[in-house]
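Question (not urgent): is this output format expected?
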Amino acid sequence: MYDPILEALRRGATADALTAAETLVAERPDDAQALRWLSAAQLQSGQADAALASIDRAIALSPENAELHLARAGVLVGSRRPDEAQAALDQATGLDPNQFTAYVVQAQLALNRGDLEEAQRLNRLASRVAPEHPRLAFVDGMALLHRGDAEGALKTLSAALQRAPDDIQLMHALGFVYMARGHLAFAEQTFRNIAVKVPAATDVTLLIASLAGRQGRPDEALELLAPVLADAQRATVGVRSLAGRLYLQAGQLDTAAPLLQGALAAGAQDREVLSSLLEVWHRQGRRDDGRQALDACLAFSPGSTDLWLARLALEDVGSPGALAATQRWLDAAPDAVGALEARLAALEHVGRLDDAEAVADRIIALQPGHGVAQARKVNALVARDPAAAVAHVEALLAQAQSDDSRTMLLGWLGMAQDRAGQASAAVASWSDRARAQQAQSLPLPLLAPAAQGWPALATVPEGNAEWPLLLWGAPGSSVERMVAVFAQARASLLTDRFDASPPKDMFQPFATVEQLLSGQADASSMLAGWRASLSSRGARNGNVIDWLVWWDNTLLQALRPHLPQGRLLAILRDPRDMLLEWLAWGAPSMLAIPSVDVAATWLAGVLEHLAELLEQELYPAVAIRIDGMENDPQRLAEALGHALGGAQLPAPSLAGHSGFPSGHWRQYADALAGPFAMLTPVAVRLGYPEA
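Got this back:
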């Protein structure tokens, strides 16, 4: 809806941009982005005062939107209202302010409308007039930030502020860069510095309050916000929305509810408001009130995807209410892909697969490459006619435009070939996918000898009250199904080793094995580092379940003498099923499969470690064999409870993807004869039949 304005601004058709923006704002007076582009059009038309008023209205509606604050700073410069410090700097350098400012103004106008190339071109012209002028850093820094180089933007702006420490606009820009990098404390301090220089700047006060809240200090944030909230003229919808979310964060639901509901009724329908209201309605048991409030909003905005998603969140998945809500959404927007996606999910959940396939066909007609819809189509074909499913996916694969699409389709093709009895073809498809994923996968860890000279197993300290559990399963073991059981039981489970920012203790880097074997690292210090990091990872004490990415018996060099009260919980299946599962479905550890033979050799090796540990009782450990119960959450919960001493654990509704049933490896006895031959000895050693 903003494209006509942006297109007109890019081609310099200021009058067209202004007309389009004014029309949109008349239709959507509470749309902060519409007001932002109206401000840009007004500034480009020479209406500086109106531009400033429009951007202030936008900020009032969305006070935490950093881009709006940045646009306001640009309006101030573009309207030739530089602060006194900048005027003094211009005079001191002996510049021609008119010539330099003209270039800077045009550069910032280009930046405001998203034309980075033009902004930098004009900035270069300005640099010919004053090569060392600090204000040049604003456009350069913001261009770097928009291109994803936050580090470069930080260096550029920091250097400029050393030469012009009182430049308000540069300080604004630096604060936004800190926010983009997640350095919220630095951003807050930067904006506090601005507030000291411009104490009447309400927009800066709102940013500071927002940043304080994001750092877990809602009470302090509300104290900052109180004078603004008490002023009827300044207590805009955006301010009330921010205050409501801060009260919710502080646990004051009764105060938060009317503020958030008032903001919703006044037109604030962004995701932050909606998600906060959903939390309030759920926690207060007022879902009916929520339904009524959202239905009232939908009566005026039937095309709002966010409103419909919020409305669906008030219904239980698969319930009659959810089905009715998706049908209402679809009636209001028959060709909206979001509505069709919601309807597809609801129908799948209640098992109306024929109806779901019909909806998938409608989505594919609108978006031929839609992954979820194509998946439903392929699943339907696989169930009905596997050979047709193979042909369908092969046709999609021939049309794939990206590597990601091709990788996804190779997985689908393998599944269709599996159902069609084409085992060798399925292995080839999955192997092709594994090669495509190699760059995004972790290398297979090098394995030390399974049997080593071990230090004595220490005695558990008297009065010990902490019994850590180390959870591990090799790729293909379906360990994630047991993780789902732990999660359902609200156990003290740590899963952060599989996140983007994992802990840096001894159990994470593969190099720990070499360091322990060579004596480069002190085992006691390694365990102490692990213990010390538990609180920062969310553990209340040492009674934790730490889900490990990898296992090597070399870890016992540290565990036996320094953590005798620990216990290894290993999840196990027939190793040949594990190899097939890993190849077809992947694994949470994201370990690479260089080839099926290499993967089989490595898997056999790591399972030899487990077999040695169990046979020789090298460390307190238990292996749960989940063969035959992979897709039965109740049996999984019972098996885990039994392993934990008879605990009664609730079963999750689902426990991971469907996967293959136990013994499916036999369908691949010929296609994977060589790799299975490598795994058979350790399978027998672990108690599985040879054939």
